[in-house]
Structures are given as C-alpha cells and as structure tokens.
Amino acid sequence: MKFKLTLWRVIFIVIMALGLYSSYIRYFHGLGAATNMTDQFPWGLWIGFDCLCGVMLAAGGFCMVGAVYLFNVERLHPVVRPAVLTAFLGYLLFIVGLLFDLGRPWFIWHQMIYMNPHSVMFEVGFCVMTYTTVLFFEFLPNVFERLNWKTPIKWINKIYPVLIVAGILLSTLHQSSLGSLYLIMPSKLHPFWYTPALPFFFFASAVAVGLAMTIFESTQSAKAFGRQLELPVLVTLGGALLVALWVNLLLRVEDFYHRGVLGMIFKPSYEAYFLWIELILTFVIPITMLSFKKVRISPQLLYLASISAVLGFITNRLNIALIGFETYVGHHYVPKWTEFSITLMIVAMGFALFGLAVRYLPIFESESAHKLEEPEVTVGARVLSHAGD
User: Fold this and answer.
1) Are residues 64 and 127 in the same domain?
2) What pLDDT was estimated at residue 366?
3) Given CB 3.0 to 4.6 Å as the disulfide criterion, which of 42, 125, 296, 350 pairs with 238?
4) Looking at 294, 311, 333, which one is the last position of a domain?
5) Domain total for the chain?
6) Where does residue 47 rank: exposed (0-12), middle (13-18), buried (19+ CB within 10 A)?
7) CA 255/CA 262 separation, integer angstroms
8) Which burial class, exposed, middle or buried, applies to 176 when counting CB atoms under 10 A from its CB (0-12, 13-18, 19+)?
9) Cα–chain-centroid distance for residue 22?
10) What pLDDT is attached to residue 370?
11) What value does the CA radius of gyration of the chain take, rounded to a whole number of Å?
C-alpha cells in the first residue's frame, strides 16, 4: 500500500515531532524546564487534562458494557467494541500522561510494594492498574478473531461475565475516587467547585461523558472509515444522555443551594466567568438541543450536542484542577508550550492507535459475528443480572 502524505498526516507528524522534543526537555532537564508548575501549584495541565479528563473520556467502556451485558440493551451492542477500545486506549494514555507528571516515574511500581490502603491516591492507582488489565482481556477477542484463534475466544467468553462485573466495579470506584482527591482541600479549592459530593459528581459526570463520547466516536468512525451510521443506536444514546445531563444539572443546582453559593454564581468574578462557560457548555446548550425530538433523531445535531457536553465536562475538570486553585495560590497558572505539546502528542497517539486498530482488527463486528459469539456471554450476564435482582 502506497503511503500518501495528506494534510492530517503532516499535522500528526508535526505534533509528534514537537511532543518528542518536549519529552526530551521533560526527562533530561526536569519538570522545572518543561512546565510552569511550582511548589504552590504542583498539579497542572497534565493532571487536569491528561489524567482527570482522560479517565472521564474513557468512561464509555464501562457504560456500554454495563448497558449491554447487565441491562440487556441489545441495540447498543454495535458500539460495545469501539467503546472498549476507546476505554483501553484512554487508560493506557492516562498512564503515559502520568509518567510525564510524576517527578520520578521510574518508581511508579512502588505503590504495589509499599502499599498504603488508607490513601485515596493508592486506591486510584490500584483501580486504574487492575481496570486496565480487565480492559486488556475485554479487548483480546478482537485480536484472537483477527488471528482466527477460536479456542482462546471460548476461554475469554467463559470469564467474560466476571470481567464485566469487575470492570464496572473498578471503574465506579476510581471514577469517584478522583473526586475524593480534592476533599482534603476545602480551604484551597474555590467554593464553586469544592463540595463533599465531589466523588459522586465525578462518577455522575463520567456516565454522561461516556454516553456523549460514544455518540462522538460513532459519528467520527462512520465518517472516517466509510461506515453506515447506526441511527437507532444514536437515538437511544441521545435520550440517555438527556436524562444523564438533567440528573447532573439538578444535583449541581441542589448542591449550590445547599452550600449557600447559588447567589455567588450571578456575581461577576474571575471564577464565575469560567463557571458560566462550564454550565453553558455542559447543560444549557446540550439540554436545550436534546429536548427537541428532531435533534435526537438527527445524527448531525446529536453530534453537536455531544461535543458541547464533552467540552463542558472537560471545562468542569479543568476548573476543578486549575482555575479553582488560582485564588488561593495568588497567581494564574498558564501552561508552557511544552506542556501543551506533550498533551497534544498523547491525544494524537490515541487517534492514531484507534485508527490502526479499526483498520486491522474486527472492531466494528458484523451481524453474523454477533450472532455466532454472543449467546454464551449474554447468558452469563443475564444470570448475574437476575442474581442481582
């Protein structure tokens, strides 16, 4: 196959070149040379976006797996494999981003030897490690099918119900625990974003983003790989996303009211401006759009609504990680170009790996493959579902 140099490939090469140069600065000259982080502001863009947002954007995996195999929403089955792939890549790239942020990343294995079970950060690290392993086994059938290895597929199918339950449990634990990291900072984090309910908000927002990201990646995949768009799937996801957004909005408003900060939202301030952007992108635009049936049955409008929701929740995580601390620290944190460059490199790697996987593996399974492989897994999931009832 002849290599063709397109505009997007040129952009990808430039991003990777700048990212690799920034990586050299980071590892050979230290965090001080590569970032604008300080002792007063030790968590910057790499934690705010690469970690907090990266884990949230990978939430589609446990959302789709749970919906199909635990709640038997069979119409969502075509998006399970792409969602699992996105989640697997998201967690791998989250680990890559963490290796850039850690002062001595070669000691990352210490958490498994010198355990501190009372630490929230240990719980996050342990769950991320184990859930990444679960995603690896959930992803393996794609490789086995490509190699036509039928016996290993049967082995994976036998343990798939266990993987499903373990994956949902682990993802739930660490999605919420990311919010728990900020519970020890009541005097540092701005009242707009500090709340005892942060762990629950992190989990609820991850569910909404998982739905929105599935709409986004389904639409993008259809455009990029010339596939037919699964409109019934998108309609179902759009309706679920509307419910998830309303739940998140009502909980946020109730929390603002309960903590007595609802009136502060309408007073112009530096933090209020960023909160307004967050609320408009997260709730006002997508809820208004999705409230109309013609939007929920339109692939293009659903796509726009999902983008708005994703950008809104990304803004929320960045507000918590960055903007919410600037008043306490006393100065504004602006990432260096090397921080942006490494982040863009990690994102570009994610898109490239997703494209390679779709090109060479049966990520978008055919209906015939679905019929051949599904019964054993579905039966096991239904047993677990009924046992829970």
Assistant:
1) yes
2) 53
3) 296
4) 333
5) 2
6) buried
7) 9
8) buried
9) 24
10) 43
11) 21
Q: Which alpha helices (DSSP H) does the chain contain, by range?
A: 7-29, 31-34, 45, 54-57, 60-65, 80-101, 110-113, 120-147, 150-180, 198-225, 231-258, 270-279, 285-290, 293-296, 299-318, 324-329, 337-360, 367-388
Q: Which of 134, 132, 142 is closest to 159 using CA atoms?
A: 134
| pLDDT of 379 | 36
Asked if residue 383 belongs to a domain, the reply is yes
Q: What is the pLDDT of residue 2?
A: 66
Which residues span the domain enclosing 357? 60-181+336-389
CA-based nearest residue to 211, from 181, 187, 180, 233: 233
pLDDT value of residue 330: 84
Class of residue 104 by CB neighbours under 10 A (exposed 0-12, middle 13-18, buried 19+): exposed
Could you count the other beta carbons within 10 Å of the beta carbon of residue 7? Answer: 7
Dist. CA 14–CA 12, nearest whole Å? 5
| CA proximity to 283, closest of 246, 243, 319 | 246
For every residue of 59-105, DSSP letters joined together read: THHHHHHIIIIIS--GGGGGGHHHHHHHHHHHHHHHHHHHHHHSSSG
- Alpha-carbon span 47 to 182, nearest angstrom: 12
**Cβ neighbours, 10 Å, residue 117:** 7
Q: State the CB neighbour count (10 A cutoff) for residue 111.
A: 16
The 3-class SS string of 220-246 reads HHHHHHCCCCCHHHHHHHHHHHHHHHH
**In the structure encoding, which two tokens stand for residue 337, read together?**
């170009």
Could you give the CA distance from residue 161 to residue 141 in angstroms, rounded to a whole number?
A: 14
Whether 304 and 363 map to the same domain: the answer is no
Mean pLDDT by 10 residues, the chain (389 residues): 79 96 95 91 90 90 88 87 92 92 88 84 87 92 90 87 88 87 90 94 94 92 79 91 96 94 91 96 97 92 96 96 89 93 95 91 62 41 40
Residue 108 in tokens: 């990352």
